[in-house]
Specification:
By secondary structure, this protein is α/β, with parallel strands linked by helices. The chain contains eleven helices and nine strands. It has a seven-stranded mixed sheet, sandwiched between helices. Helix 7 packs parallel to helix 11. The two termini are 18 Å apart.
Length: 336
């Protein structure tokens, strides 16, 4: 069975010494969005994830980790508070810290323990007003306007590269996209990588690692990738030969175990999305975009790990790599 979540606690150079001999460890909390077990270290042969694989070889992988929620907000709320949705009240898009300000998220706990706390990117389910901004020494925003607008993530906007034409994927070509960019993928010019929102967040994190810190730090870095849209530089598409990509096995009776109402909804969704991709002959193309985005996310992790190795904190830093929940590639007729 596929994992419901890919959550790996990966320890980088953590020496076995007592707290009296060494200060508390720094922590890097690296998040990716919509990553399933399509990672080399998890036994998936089509992945090109050398940095995740190297990290896994040096640490501990949790192969029986389960997503605490089947949607973004409840899952991320659970990860940050250690509480299920039955406690946070977050089942869909509710904001746990509005109704339950007494719940202490990770960054507040670290701050109370004497840590400097740094955050960037998609850590919470991140529309306007959805970030828990308590406890951060500094949270990176690409522009000051974001603070006035409720700290939205805005990973795709006027200051980030979009393909030409837009939309670009065969699934959306000729349509008008009003939001979400669902099943949208395209290679963008390699020289535009520096302009991508996730790249800017990772570069900021690397700059934090170059600084001198007098107290231990907790640094959380959240990527939007490999969430749709799968817009990443062409070099990451080039890592995968679309002609050799194999789709998952699709079971003809995969919806038969569902309750009638849910089955009806799933059949309608399958007709709109999966069946359309089949008609277009675009299943492998859509998977190609996802794998390219996973490779881009892997490269961003590699950039942070390189900065850590080159810093004075490499021997006393714990690295945690996690994703909020799994991603469907046509299983049960679902995409996303």
């Amino acid at each position: 069975n596929r994992l419901l979540a890919f959550l790996a606690l990966l320890i980088f150079g953590f020496a076995h010494q007592t707290s009296a001999q060494k200060p508390p460890p720094n922590v890097i909390f690296f998040a990716v969005d919509d990553l399933c077990d399509w990672v080399g270290a998890m036994g998936y042969a089509q992945a090109r994830t050398p940095n995740m694989d190297a990290l896994a070889r040096r640490g501990i992988s949790f192969n029986n980790a389960h997503c605490p929620g089947t949607f973004c907000a409840p899952s991320r709320s659970a990860i940050f508070t250690g509480r299920f949705a039955s406690t946070t009240g977050c089942y869909r898009t509710e904001i746990y810290f509005h109704n339950h300000p007494e719940l202490r998220p990770l960054q507040v706990s670290f701050a109370k323990a004497g840590y400097a706390t740094y955050g960037a990117g998609k850590l919470f389910h991140h529309a306007r007003g959805y970030i828990d901004h308590r406890g951060w020494t500094k949270f990176f925003l690409r522009n000051e306007a974001a603070k006035r607008e409720g700290w939205p993530l805005d990973s795709w906007g006027k200051d980030t590269p979009l393909p030409d034409p837009f939309p670009n994927s065969i699934y959306n070509r000729g349509r008008q996209i009003t939001g979400g960019m669902f099943l949208e993928w395209a290679a963008i010019p390699n020289e535009r990588e520096k302009d991508m929102a996730d790249t800017k967040r990772v570069n900021w994190a690397c700059d934090i690692l170059k600084q001198k810190h007098d107290v231990p730090f907790f640094m959380a870095v959240g990527l939007y990738a490999p969430h749709f849209p799968n817009y990443v530089p062409k070099k990451y598409f080039d890592l995968h030969d679309v002609e050799k990509i194999k789709a998952p096995v699709y079971k003809e009776d995969d919806l038969d175990d569902l309750p009638p109402l849910v089955k009806r909804r799933k059949i309608n969704r399958k007709r709109q999305h999966h069946d359309r991709l089949v008609e277009l002959g675009a299943i492998e193309q859509a998977i190609h975009g996802y794998l390219a985005s996973v490779s881009y996310a892997d490269a961003m992790l590699g950039r942070v790990m390189k900065a850590l190795r080159q810093s004075s904190y490499a021997d006393n830093t714990v690295v945690v790599l996690w994703s909020d929940h799994v991603f469907h590639h046509g299983e049960k007729g679902d995409w996303g």
